[in-house]
Amino acid sequence: MNICKKTIFNSILFILVPFLLSAQNDTVKCDVSVLGVASSGAYSPFWLNSRQYGIISDSPFSAGLLAGVNKDFDAKKSLLNYGFKANALLQIDNDQSNVFFYEIYAKAQLLSVFDLVVGAREEHLGNQDSTLSSGGLLFSKNARPMPKVTVGIEHFTAVPFTFGYLQIKGALAHGWFTDNNKVQN
Fold this sequence. Notes:
2 helices, 7 strands, mainly beta, globular
């Protein structure tokens, strides 16, 4: 009877160990950042608050606290992969304070190819180097991320049987404006 219990225990352990080891790849990270701006004049310097996705205020004196939690896709390929991010920003100006979710989204990946993203996130679109240029003509980094639903292939993926000579990338997205700021005239 004792050998039977050992065999059952070893069998269960043998089955569960691969799942326990793969669960170690699910790394959830926490981030906290403190921001501060002090400048003379009516506004903060343009070079300081431009291309920051609205994190830094244009007020000459402001502070912020950015805190969040995230999980990216696993490094290994799998049938279904998931990730998420939630960043809250406390922004304090000389005349007001705001708290809002700066980035909040969930994403899933099927067969390490097809992506689904729901929520608001920073996006780097186009082929320009974000560290060497002031950005693209169509998409600006000066506003907060827009909530949207995106379905597609986000990274260049080789088409089967083309030996990597043909790759595909593309997505469909639908977004919603959240602020009621309107430009007139």
